[in-house]
Amino acid sequence: MEGDTFSGLGNGNLVDTKVLQQFNSSFGQVQSILDQNRLLINEINQNHESKIPDNLSRNVRLIRELNNNIRRVVDLYADLSTSFTKSMEDSSNGDSVGTLRSDGKAGNKRVRSG
What we know:
The protein has helices at residues 17-50, 53-92, and strands spanning 7-8, 13-14, 96-100, 106-110.
């Protein structure tokens, strides 16, 4: 397996290592935001159950923060989709793409269409 390249989606297109790095980074950011959302939801629920006026008014800010976090996740997924689509289009047009071999080393290959 040493020296193999990874192909994307089973169609023979090589996956650009920059795209893989962006996926990795973006999914890490998404996971971090989702973890934060879990904490926010728990706090919102506790404040709601307490029925203490100060806690209930604090929930307004927490819910706004939760909504902003959800928007950020949507934006990250949209960016990922755009980046992946562009990478696949570039690959199918015969552009050079970075590849990742099974030994973890990056390489470059010229992809031929047709």
